[in-house]
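Review this chain:
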Amino acid sequence: MKLAAIYERISDDREGRELGVDRQDKDCQGLARREGLTVFDVYRDNDISASTNSRKPRPEYDRLVADAKAGKFSVIVAYTSGRLTRRPRESEDLIDLATGYGISYRYVRSPNFDLNTAQGREIARTMAARDAGEAEEIAERVAAEVRDRAERGEYHGGPRSYGLAPNGRDLVEDEAEEIKRWYSHILAGGSLAGLQADLNRRGVPSATGKAWRAPVIRKILLKPRNAGLRILDGIEYAAPNPAIVSEATWRAVKQLLEEPGRLANHAGTARRHVGTGLFICERCDPHTVNASYARSGGNLLYRCLNCFRSWRADPIHRWLDDTVEALLSREDARQRLLPEPTKGVDLQELWAEAAAIQNNLGELATEFVLARGAVKAALKTGMDRGQARLDEIQAVITAAGRVDATAALLAASDPVAAYRAITDVSLRQAVLRSLMVVRLGEPIRGRAAWDATKFMGASQWVNDTRTWADIWAEAGPSA
């Protein structure tokens, strides 16, 4: 009894229905029966290319090769040789399976040949080269078609994107409104983790019906189509759909989400307690504090990791919330709390300059690899200056698109209710950061009565020259 493995693959399954591999399975199973083979297992890679241009892994193909080497079967059945691979390098691996492990191959629509003979290996290599060339020609035709569609502003096809109708041109209004809210949330200082929690809590359906995840939200926010753009090979085209947000908003959020610090923080950017990274120890300024729970009693404490002083969190949280809510409820809140408007920024000019610098840095980097001595040092200096200017430009672009967290609250019909509804710790921090600098003074001892002028240290209000004591008295909260 000969055991056989069936390998099935299709490169493009846009509908996700696996009809192509199902058809292959029927024919491959029929071939196995005619040849008197017993099927050991079926290995299926759906919607994965095997061309030389593809970098997507084929887990089932890798499992097939490993099982062949382990001696679990002696025959591999496939629809055609091109279903197994279109890569000449992998073709050599298949030859090694034949010569080293006794594997033979049977194809439904390709000729069968013995790879243990020189002539069989020659035919296999010829067919592998032809398959690779055919795949590359197809890739070139597809790329040209995609470019033509982009130039004509036509939809490129594919699964439905969140915010867009299946035709890729019309907006789904309720989803588009959600996306707008995401941009405002991020620009106001909110986090992706906060958006994820909020969407799942409210039961907002995703395009696939699955629960929301922060990486998926990030991917959607980075899509140029949200700004009515399509970028192909670095060239910008008009997208077939209307813009959901302005180009400036999209670019600002893109800059925020692609900041190196955020990308390097594999542990995540979400914070659980509002004071972490926000409250400053007055004695150890500029050291911020960290939050933890007391070993006995379970109370939340803020601790300075430099001098190890600690403060009970509850009275600080209550006082801050009371103060902010009292200020937001004032009739003159907008005049009192909002910063002075900034002068306009020519974003188009900045984007053009940034693109020119990036292009120049690429050219300098190429020369830097080959340079030596003084020339290499001069190139390094030029690259450092270019990167410094690029960082400045990117910071201005990001700042131009940012939304002041307090301004967003004051735009609500009920600012106090809007503040209370904030569940994202990062967004609540953004509100506090736009209003105040919190420095913790003497820790609260025992049953000591609350005294903000004592326990809050030399804290200060943003955009206000008056003392805290004066504003506290006007705001109203006493404890």
About this structure: The longest helix spans residues 118-152.
